[in-house]
Amino acid sequence: MHESSSSPSSLGKWLGFVTAIWVQAISGNNYTFSNYSAALKSLMSLTQLQLNNLSVAKDVGKAFGVLAGIASDRLTTPVILLIGSLEGLIGYGVQWLVVSRKIHPLPYWQMCIFLALGGNSTTWMNTAILVTCMRNFRKNRGPVSGILKGFVGLSTAIFTDVCSALFADSPSKFLLMLAIVPAVVCLTAIFFLREVPVTNTAAQQEEESKYLNFFNIVAVIVALYLLIYDLSGKHSHLMSLLFASGLLFLLVVSPLSIPLYSIFKNSSNSHNINNDDVETRIQEAETQTVETEMREKSVQVVVEEKDLETDDKVVEMDYKKPILGEDHTILEAVQTLDFWILFLSFLCGVGTGLAVMNNLGQMGLALGHADVSIFVSLTSIFGFFGRIGSGTISEYFLKNHATPRPLWNAASQIPMSLGYVVLAIALPGSLYVGSIVVGICYGVRLAITVPTASELFGLKYYGLIYNILILNLPLGSFLFSGLLAGFLYDAQATKTKGGGNTCVGSHCYRQVFVVMALSCVVGLVLDVVLVFRTKKLYKKIQIGKKSG
């Protein structure tokens, strides 16, 4: 017997999804380094290479996300969330103590450890959220990924704008928010986020899609709300308080309307059970009985056929290598060419995008912008539009035209490459254009890769496979930010008193942008190859979605 769309398990699923949105809305703290990097550079008298290696240390923490992936098959979702919240509290808490001068600056290597701890905290949060939600919403992985990753993109703007509104861009108070707020939100999600039975009926799937459309609308409203605030100039203290209150309402209260509606619907339906419902359930039970008998007969036929085979052939069939679209272990996945194409193309997109985000502070100063918070917010907000738009659009074209999801990754590499060219030319306003373009394309890449990995290699070991893929974040940060941007910037910079350095002018990052533009071209070629290799698989997925 199928559960009604308003059953307790349905209510639990939507309550869990709301708390998942809350966690994702605060788990993008790893992208906020530009907001306090200048304070660290000044306080610790660092060169740009040393500062960039601090940001690499933050991203290296994500390399240990493999631990979260392994744990996802062994620990419950609440335990994984608890680990992430404690790591973030310690990692960002120590950085706050240093920047607020509560303690003396720690040795460089110790700061690297605490930045890595803060970076690793998000891998536990993201693993708990994505693995649970991908399994709860198997038929709508694209939209769910877009919504969740969209709120991750918005989280940088949320933290930046709230800090600007309430604390006048104080780096120390900003870090205090990064330490406390995620811990509180994760502790809340611990009580609600669980795996629940998946939807089976067409009515349930239709209702699920309608509810997800509502969450899409809420997310777009939040993004526009943040964008209007960023573009409207300076604000009075009263307006800042009103902005923060409105944002809290949009993030907390409005998503809860779906679970509240589910409660109301469940209460209403409990008083309206009639004979038609009973008859329908009897018919469903009879249908299931017939289907079960047919399956049993099919199994008997298969067994009889196998009994006729020789013992040697039976031994050979003990292990069958999974094909694309079936559940892969991590060892089986890394033995496929498709995994490495996806891995390397992901590196070209997210590695270069992360280098821009980590260096936005210094890029803005080099081009004569005293306040770089607007660029951080623009990258975050338009990254959201890339994430949420690509999730919904890719799902539509997959269901209606069997369009392979990697095609959207390929499409994102073209404007991303052009965005780096614009930044290299350094015309007036180029940093605004570059921040927007890079944000959108980076968002597309993240949102598309999440469901793509689950569709190519299955959901059984998805937590570990996902965390292997996001090794590209620390790897890309090291290659493009730590090495490329750090060395080329320092080669152009002049020494300052205290042992640091600085560079002003369009030449500071020009070579960096050219190399990253070429990397995106390589990523484009890899994505196109993956599109052709997965066309048959996505045709099967389309048929499954229509028949399901």
* Rg, Cα atoms, Å: 25 Å
How much helix, percentage-wise, in residues? Answer: over 70%
Please state the overall shape, judged from the principal axes of the Cα atoms.
globular
Tally of contiguous helical segments: 22
Cα separation of the termini: 17 Å
Number of strands: 2
Low-confidence runs of at least 5 consecutive residues: 1-6, 275-280, 301-317
Report the biggest beta sheet as strand number plus sense, adding barrel if it closes.
Answer: 2 strands, antiparallel
Percentage of residues in DSSP E strands: under 5%
Q: Which series of helices and strands comes N to C?
A: HHHHHHHHHHHHHHHHHHHHEEHH
Structural class: mainly alpha
Overall mean pLDDT stands at 83
Strand order of the largest sheet: 1-2
Describe this structure in words.
It is a single chain. The chain is mainly alpha-helical. Helices cover 77% and strands 1% of the residues. It has helices at 8-26, 37-44, 48-60, 65-71, 77-99, 108-136, 141-167, 171-189, 202-231, 237-253, 257-269, 275-307, 311-316, 330-334, 337-366, 373-401, 406-425, 430-457, 462-469, 472-492, 510-533, 535-547; strands at residues 494-495, 501-502. The chain has a two-stranded antiparallel sheet. The radius of gyration is 25 Å and the shape is globular. The two termini are 17 Å apart. The model is unreliable at 1-6, 275-280 and 301-317 (pLDDT under 50).
